[in-house]
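Fig. S4 source data, part A: sequence.
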Amino acid sequence: MSGRVQGVGFRAACRSEALRHGVAGYAYNAADGSVEAAFEGTPEAVRAMLTWCAHGPPGAEVRAVEATEEVAVGVSGFRIG
């Protein structure tokens, strides 16, 4: 996600949203000011996360969400870094 996504609680809110939807994965701040995230879960839950990422938490100003589908690797839990 790019835009104003660092310093607004994006990763913590993303983790809460992921846990609410039963999604595993991670979210971390990238050096370029964006947030990178990976989600594993049911197709519906992952779509819900992508929809949420398009606006993020209050204070975020998401400019773009780029998504790539990859093979699930079987992660558990949701990490932020």
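Fig. S4 source data, part B ends here. The chain has a mean pLDDT of 96.
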